[in-house]
C-alpha cells in the first residue's frame, strides 16, 4: 500500500487552533480566571463603596477610579498574566515540547495575543457595566470611544510584549507569581490607579512616567473625566499625543526585549 502525504495545515489554521487552545486553557484554570477577571471587579466594588466622595466639577472618585481600574485590569490581563503563564509553561516543559513540533513558533504568540485580547475585552465590558449600573459612572460618548480604543489597544500591546519579556526574569514557574506580582502592584500604586495621581510624590511620578501604565491610565482619564480636571495632571493637560508616543515606544522596546530575551526552556533544564 502506498501512503499519501497529507499537506500540512496552513499557518492561519494553526494560529486559529492555537488561539482556541489558549482560550480553553485559560478559562479552565479557575485561579487564573478569578484573579485576572475578578480582581479588578473587586477593586472597583471596594473602592467605589469606601471612597465615595466628590472631586469637584461634579465628578465622583469612582468616575476617576474607573480609568485606573481599567488600566490595572489591562495590565493584569497582559503583562502579569502573560509573564506568569509563559514562565510556568517554560518550567513544566510545555514550551520545549511545542518548539520541537512542526507548529510555526509564531502561532504560539498569536494564541497568547488572542487570549489577552479576549480577556481584556471581557474585563473592560464587566467593569463598564458595573460602573454604569451600580455607581452611575458616565460612559464615554462620541469621539471619546475612539480615544478609549486606541489607548487601551496600545497599552495592551505594550504590556503584552513586556509580559513576554518579563517572563524570562523568573527562574521557574513556581517563582513567577512572586517575581511578577510585586512589580505590577508597585506600578499600580505609583501610576495613579488607587488614588489621585497628583497625590503621588513628585519623585514617584517621575519614576511612573518611565513605564506604560501611567500613560495608559492618563489617556483613559481623558475619556472619563471632564477637561476641567486636566489641570490636575502634571503637565496641566491630558497630553494625548505624548500618551500615544510613549505607548508606541514601549511597543517597540517590548518587541526588542522579547526577541533578545525569550527562550523556549529554562536555563537549567530540570
From TrEMBL:
GO molecular function, one term: ABC-type transporter activity
Membrane topology, record value: Multi-pass membrane protein
Keywords tagged on the record: Antibiotic resistance, Membrane, Transmembrane, Transmembrane helix
Parts forming coiled coils: none
Signal peptide start-end: none
Primary location class: membrane
GO biological process: response to antibiotic
Regions crossing the membrane: 33-51, 63-88, 109-135, 147-166, 178-197, 243-262
One Gene Ontology cellular component annotation held by this UniProt entry: ATP-binding cassette (ABC) transporter complex
Pfam families named in the record: ABC2_membrane_3
Subcellular location field: Membrane
The keyword Membrane appears for this protein: yes
Record-annotated ABC transmembrane type-2 domain positions: 31-265
Annotated protein name in UniProt: ABC-type multidrug transport system, permease component
Organism of this sequence: Modestobacter italicus (strain DSM 44449 / CECT 9708 / BC 501)
Amino acid at each position: 500500500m502506498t501512503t499519501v502525504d497529507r499537506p500540512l495545515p496552513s499557518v492561519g489554521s494553526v494560529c486559529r487552533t492555537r488561539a482556541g487552545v489558549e482560550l480553553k486553557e485559560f478559562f479552565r484554570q479557575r485561579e487564573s480566571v478569578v484573579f485576572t477577571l475578578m480582581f479588578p471587579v473587586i477593586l472597583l466594588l471596594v473602592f467605589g463603596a469606601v471612597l465615595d466622595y466628590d472631586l469637584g466639577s461634579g465628578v465622583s472618585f469612582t468616575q476617576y477610579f474607573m480609568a485606573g481600574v481599567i488600566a490595572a485590569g489591562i495590565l493584569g490581563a497582559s503583562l502579569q498574566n502573560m509573564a506568569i503563564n509563559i514562565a510556568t509553561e517554560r518550567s513544566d516543559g510545555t514550551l520545549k515540547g511545542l518548539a520541537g513540533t512542526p507548529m510555526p513558533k509564531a502561532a504560539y504568540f498569536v494564541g497568547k495575543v488572542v487570549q489577552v485580547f479576549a480577556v481584556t475585552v471581557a474585563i473592560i465590558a464587566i467593569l463598564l457595566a458595573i460602573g454604569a449600573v451600580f455607581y452611575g459612572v458616565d460612559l464615554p460618548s462620541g469621539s471619546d470611544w475612539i480615544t478609549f480604543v486606541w489607548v487601551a489597544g496600545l497599552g495592551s500591546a505594550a504590556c503584552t510584549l513586556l509580559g513576554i519579556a518579563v517572563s524570562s526574569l523568573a527562574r521557574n514557574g513556581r517563582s513567577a507569581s512572586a517575581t511578577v506580582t510585586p512589580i505590577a502592584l508597585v506600578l499600580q500604586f505609583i501610576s495613579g490607579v488607587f488614588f489621585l495621581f497628583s497625590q503621588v510624590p513628585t519623585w514617584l511620578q517621575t519614576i511612573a512616567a518611565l513605564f506604560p501604565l501611567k500613560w495608559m491610565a492618563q489617556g483613559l482619564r481623558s475619556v472619563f473625566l471632564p477637561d476641567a480636571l486636566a489641570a490636575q495632571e502634571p503637565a496641566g493637560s491630558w497630553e494625548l499625543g505624548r500618551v500615544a508616543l510613549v505607548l508606541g515606544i514601549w511597543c517597540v522596546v517590548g518587541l526588542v526585549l522579547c526577541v533578545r530575551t525569550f527562550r523556549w526552556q529554562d536555563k537549567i533544564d530540570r
